[in-house]
Design goal:
Elements (H helix, E strand, L loop, with lengths): L3 E5 L4 H15 L6 E5 L15 E4 L15 H20 L3 E4 L1 H9 L3 E3 L4 E10 L1 H5 L1 H6 L4 E8 L2 E4 L5 E6 L6 E4 L3 E4 L7 H10 L11 H8 L9 H10 L2
Parallel strand pairs: 1-2, 1-3, 3-4, 4-11
Antiparallel strand pairs: 5-8, 6-7, 6-9, 9-10, 10-11
């Protein structure tokens, strides 16, 4: 099998490693089957995308909608490299699944308007599949129910998609929770790479990044611990299964 690539853009080594472990666990892939590309510091490690099965891009403290002059150099470097890779992904029809930061980068690359209109604080939200979502091959492979709980925490979101994009899932606060462009390029606003314990751990690392009020953190965690969000991670296993080659 050709390997998959996990793109990471988290500058913090401990958080990046935890994310890596989660993607390995939820995809079921072995270390040798998942190349780790930390684009906040290094170039994309694969020259010919025909040598891989697909790409998974996880969340990030970076946001595409902030002014360019406000972005640190690591963010500018990662964003430029992601857009370069996405150029090839689209032309070569390489399977791609982007989560959270992935919806901002894939959306921006494809001409979507990404802004802060539909940001959501850290928490669990109800996600509902659209008619197109119910028929989508990846969603069907994952066996997602029509309505499920997704874990979110984002400052920016899709405001408007280009006409050729297909909305696969929506939510009450963020109208675009999942979309597809092309035949197999996907992005989700919710986090398929996180379960309840891991989003709480992630939130502790980013408590001062503006995703929630630090004074409310423990109350938010208590509310999250009452939730069950076991559907979204099935997308990662389905992606690895459906597109392995």
């Amino acid at each position: 099998m050709k390997p998959f690539v996990q793109i990471a853009t988290r500058p913090e080594d401990d958080v990046a490693l935890t994310e890596r472990e989660a993607v390995l666990a939820f995809t079921g892939l072995g270390e040798d089957d998942l190349i780790w590309a930390r684009l906040d510091r290094d170039p994309f490690p694969v020259e010919d995308l025909e040598d891989i099965s697909g790409i998974i891009l996880c969340g990030s403290p970076f946001t595409v909608s902030e002014p360019e002059e406000s972005k640190p150099e690591a963010e500018k470097r990662a964003e430029k490299e992601i857009f370069r890779v996405l150029d090839q992904v689209i032309v070569q029809d390489i399977p791609f699944l982007g989560a959270c930061y992935g919806i901002g980068t894939l959306g921006t690359h494809q001409g979507a308007l990404i802004d802060r209109t539909y940001g959501e604080p850290l928490g669990a939200v109800e996600v509902t599949l659209t008619a197109a979502g119910l028929e989508d091959p990846l969603v069907k492979e994952a066996g997602l129910p029509t309505t499920f709980t997704g874990l979110v925490g984002h400052k920016e979101a899709v405001h408007t998609l280009p006409s050729f994009a297909t909305v696969l899932a929506s939510g009450a606060t963020a109208p675009v929770q999942m979309f597809r462009v092309g035949t197999r390029q996907y992005a989700t606003q919710f986090h398929p790479e996180l379960d309840i314990p891991s989003i709480i751990e992630r939130a502790r690392a980013y408590r001062d990044h503006g995703y929630f009020s630090p004074d409310e953190m423990e109350d938010i965690f208590t509310a999250l611990q009452r939730e069950t969000a076991d559907a979204p991670p099935k997308l990662l296993r389905a992606f690895a299964t459906l597109f392995a080659r």
